[in-house]
Batch of 2 targets.
Target 1
Amino acid sequence: MRKAITSPQTFKTCYIAAVKEELGLLKRKRTAKRKVKPPQHLRWAIKEALTRKPNATYKEIQRLAFEIYCQREKENLPFFGVLGEVPDDILWEVIDDKGLSYED
């Protein structure tokens, strides 16, 4: 389980730069790949902040992404990760599958 995000500094500038590069807003001069990639659970908030304010500074994007993330937490919208919402019938098929082993 992820810890609650309590600070705008959780949205690191390297995460913002990586998302900007993905969206084509930033071009790197070097050919090397990025060492640090943004986690999936933060990427959507950074993208939303960049669409709302594309010419903002990194500090403004950090604060805006943090506000967007907190707003979603307040609304208590579910987070389903990269798969999206899983239908109940598929979910129960996976849970009832005897071939899977579960560890504590």
Note: The chain has four helices and no strands.
Target 2
Amino acid sequence: MNSASNINRRHFLQTATGAAAALLLGQARGQNTDTNPVPTKNAAGWLSRNNPADANRTGKQRLPVAALQQWEAMKFGMFIHFGMSTFAGAELPSGSDPSTLYAPDKLDVDQWVSIARDAGMKYAVLTTKHVAGHSLWPTKLNDYHVGTSGKKTDVVAAFLKACERRGVKPGFYYCAWDNHNRFGSLSPNVAPLPFGKNPSPTNRSSAYATQAYLDFQWAQITELMDVYGPITEWWLDIPHLLPRDYRERLYAHITQRQPEAVVMFNHGIGDGSELIVDRAWPTDLIAIERFLPNSATGHVKWRKIDGKDYYVPGEVCDPIGTDWFYTEHDQPRSDAELLGMYLTSTSRGANLLLDVGPDKHGLIPERYQSALVRLRKNLNKLGL
């Protein structure tokens, strides 16, 4: 994920959507209000409801509209950021930390997925490899993974078993920005940075991936498919480091092996109004990172790309607090803000992938659990 936060967006959530959520909750409790609640759009989406002819469109996207709408119908998922960054205390580590630094002493992956299920989340996406380059499965492609760490549990395998046991659809996150496995690439940052600090703009604009790294990424993603089988969603981060022709080949490689999965190349921070082809195409979805869908239009699902019409669902992704990975100081957002995030995302035609980071013990902390319990109760009061 990108590390930058957006002050205006957070302020908006705390005021506009937070107020709307408080209003809706008040009405659900029978309190008198002077303002009508924000209408909730149907699963077909904001734009489709205003344009009945859209129901008959097919588009040039790989998956049928009906299949993509099945993904949209899940509405709510859990993003799980966990790994070396949790233990290094930096979202964007240098990649030089020893594998043994990763050492959760109470690791309970089933707890994570149980909490997601109980919160009403229908799917979950796990960070299999983030910027630190440390893999949460015992990859055979290097020695920087859980198998050489302070806790040798295959987290990817445990995650899939937990998802199957709890009825939650699994997804894998994989990051192209890799500070350990560089193979001569220039990463957007080359030194550890504290949470909330951006890499050098110069490095970010001149970053690139070598063919050797591209081969490594291809091999790791292939290994994940070979060892762990089909999943529901592939969430591929920092795709602007990857040449478009490579993205197209990788997309085809994944979808040929797992044709029912949705594949997303992360578009990055923004409200999803614009889909920049050079940054994140091809993709089945568009990420709406650290923002909400455009307030005037909702999420616009029909896009014209290279002269052809495509149906592209949206997925809002944002942490339950401020940081993607667990930090001791990070507190969950208010109940009104979390409710507002859900209501605004789904009413504007996008799913919400809410990030919840397990701590250094390998557990989702109580304060996040409690916030999700309260969110579920508030959604139940609204009949959602």
Note: The radius of gyration is 20 Å.
